[in-house]
Design a protein that fits this description.
The chain has about 260 residues and is an alpha/beta fold. It is about 40% helix and about 15% strand. It has nine helices and seven strands.
């Protein structure tokens, strides 16, 4: 896989608490890097089945307006998220969702799979002529810049260097990141509903691949499928805790943190 040369630096700043996402981060980043600000968020990291998905919404700080209806996807009903997708796509100057499959997660690990999905989203934007000046990433770890193993699956094209800034709970404080979370959640949910219609045994249309008791029971009864993350010890709740601990152990701080 070609290397995406995203850049990150560490700085110990925490975001100021806000009651709703705003454009403060967008304006601050625009002053430092340029007007095209990419909000970035992932969904599906903790699921047992299906892809991990990364949404990116690029806004132009010179013309973007506040959209008070945009919230972190977890705070919206599924129906409302779907309704907001056209607004998100019209609000941004570029939008994309990248995915990394369960097979790829097993092959390279969850952090490199996140990076692969993120680079695919950036590659789609670049193909449309949209290259952000900076990426604002939700969380405290810059997995987008993480150097990792090459994937055997559909490597994306090389991309120009893009700085990366990280903020804990950016999906609650930055409208661009909140928009990215909506886009990614709707896209991944649609994939899981489609899988569920083909194979209803695991309840994916309802649980979206996450570790519900019914999902774990179905795995014990039927065995894992090619859509399951087989490296994730799928059998018991204790095994799931082990998998989560493995994810956390990969997440040492990286990237540059920003706050207002």
């Amino acid at each position: 896989m070609s290397t995406h040369a995203a850049v990150g630096r560490t700085r110990g700043l925490a975001p100021r608490r806000t009651t709703a996402p705003t454009l403060r981060f967008v304006n601050r980043l625009a002053a430092a890097y340029g007007p095209l600000i990419a909000g970035c968020d992932e969904v599906g990291r903790g699921a047992l089945a299906g892809p991990v998905s990364v949404g990116i919404v690029v806004v132009d700080a010179r013309s973007v307006v506040t959209r008070t209806v945009l919230r972190d996807s977890k705070l919206l009903t599924p129906e409302r998220r779907v309704e907001l997708v056209p607004l998100v796509r019209s609000w941004g100057v570029g939008c994309a969702v990248g995915h990394a499959s369960a097979q790829e997660i097993d092959e390279v690990g969850i952090m490199d799979a996140l990076r692969l999905a993120g680079v695919r989203a950036l590659d789609e934007l670049a193909a449309a002529g949209v290259v952000p000046d900076v990426v604002h990433l939700d969380g405290n770890y810059n997995w987008l810049s993480r150097g990792g193993q090459a994937s055997l699956f559909d490597p994306p094209a090389a991309l120009p260097a893009v700085p990366v800034e990280t903020t804990i709970k950016a999906d609650l404080s930055c409208q661009a990141v909140a928009a990215a979370s909506i886009l990614a959640k709707v896209a991944r949910d649609a994939i899981m509903v489609g899988y569920g219609s083909v194979d209803p045994r695991f309840g994916w249309a309802v649980n979206k691949g996450y570790a519900t008791a019914e999902h774990r029971a179905a795995i014990l009864e039927h065995g894992p499928t090619e859509l399951h993350r087989r490296s994730w010890h799928l059998g018991t709740a204790e095994d799931e805790q082990t998998a989560e601990e493995a994810i956390v152990s990969e997440g040492d701080l990286g990237g540059r943190k920003i706050g207002l």
